[in-house]
Amino acid sequence: MKVTRVTCHLLQSKVDRPFTSARGWLYTTRSSCVVEIETDAGITGWGECYGPAAVNKALIETQYAPRLIGRDPFDVEVVWEDLYNRIKDYGAQGFSITALSGIDIALWDIMGRATGLPIHKLIGGAYRKEIRAYATGLYFTDMDRLVEEAVEEALEYKAQGFRAIKMKIGLGDPKLDFRRVKAVRDAIGPEIALAVDANHCFTVPQAIRLGRMLEELDLLWFEEPVSPEDHAGYAQVTQALDLAVAGGENDFTRWGFREVIATKAMDIVQPDVCAAGGISEMRKIATLASAFGVECVPHAWGSAIGLAATVQFLAALPDQPPAFRPIPPMLEFEQTPNPLRDILAKEPITQQGGIVRVPEGPGLGIEVDHEVLARFKVA
Predict the structure, then answer these.
(1) Given Cys at both, which of 161, 294, 330, 336 links 354, Cβ 3.0 to 4.6 Å?
(2) Exposed, middle or buried, 143 (CB in 10 Å: 0-12/13-18/19+)?
(3) Is the pTM here over 0.90, yes or no?
């Protein structure tokens, strides 16, 4: 079997109710670069790239696609190393890896479809058939009701059956951040796990100060407190707090995570399958984390394809650590409006009571709806 064609679909949808993160970015659209790889056996695989879709599309079409034609999809690791080594002189992180991630996922999807097996079977088997999901939301929407809207949204997720929630912080005033988080904690009660995500908007002293305030609220973790480039700063925050520190959605490949994991600069690493290097590289990052006793809880922000790839990976990720009653890795299930996540697959990944069943179909376990693909395709 050989690759015959590589197509990048730039998808975009409008957000009905725009929202803002701690970085101050106003989200009015959601976009994605979806990778379609066809073979001479009539089997097609799908992947997704994290980040600005147009840049990923251009990089794949000009740098990677010409080197993929004629390759055997089952040589996925060989292909990964070849493409990486051809591009790393010009960038060993960022877009060169996000683009490669989409290709890698699509090749794994092809292998699964060719063998009739879900990806989790190809990478070691399922440790679990169901995955506990946590709801990501509580962005900043109504600036006059920042506390009230957060409480209302959190209670909605609790009513849906989610047992864990992640909310945004970073309002420029640690007292306001604390008040907002405390209001949510008081509303949902102690039985619902709660994490906070700052989108790397703090300095080290600011993060430590706020983190110490938040320690009394029994939080699951403090995500991206400082800039992703500042691994030493992460280590300072991690050492200063009696609260788990998480990060890594903006790190790439095993080499990018090596120092973070080896020095335990973070308690929890959060590589994204659509950014860090695809299924192939996620396995290496997770193995490295396991060897150093660092928890791995993947970041997930994308379409139905990226979500499905994350579910397949999590199904095959060992408990951390193994125990009589282990705490299994969780799936990030972001709740912001996104039809690319909700309807791009004919049978999308859904949650019931905060639980996601692992698809047993071949490859990613989903089928792309071509009518929806065409509806949202802009390039």
Answers:
(1) 161
(2) exposed
(3) yes
CA distance 105 to 363: 9
Is 299 marked active-site?
yes
Task: Specify which residues 363 forms β-bridges with.
Answer: 118
List Cβ<8 Å contacts ≥24 apart for 372-376.
372/339, 372/343, 372/344, 373/9, 373/11, 373/34, 373/344, 376/11, 376/12, 376/13, 376/339, 376/340, 376/344
> What single-letter DSSP state applies at residue 116?
T
Task: Give the up-direction half-sphere exposure of residue 73: CA atoms within 13 A in the CB hemisphere.
Answer: 31
**Where do the structural domains in the chain lie, given as residue ranges?**
3-116+370-376, 121-357
226-248 pLDDT, tens digit each: 999 999 999 999 999 999 999 99
| Amino acid sitting at position 331 | L
Token pair in block for residue 348: 């999308």
- Tokens for 224, please give them: 């991206």
Q: Give Cα 284 to chain centroid, integer Å.
A: 16
DSSP letter (8 states) at residue 256: H
3-116+370-376, what's its fold? Enolase-like; domain 1 (3.30.390)
Condensed to tens digits (0 to 9), the pLDDT of residues 59-81 reads 999 999 999 999 999 999 999 99
Q: What is the pLDDT of residues 98-144, one digit of tens each?
A: 999 999 999 999 999 999 999 999 999 999 999 999 999 999 999 89
Residue 314 CA to residue 296 CA, distance in Å, equals 10
Active-site pick, 9, 200, 231, 299: 299
CA neighbours closer than 13 Å in the CB half-sphere of residue 165? 32
Q: d(Cα 282, Cα 298) in Å, to the nearest integer? A: 9
CATH number for the segment(s) 121-357: 3.20.20.120
What single letter denotes the amino acid at residue 62?
T
Distance (Å, whole) CA 264 – CA 127: 26
DSSP state of 61: I
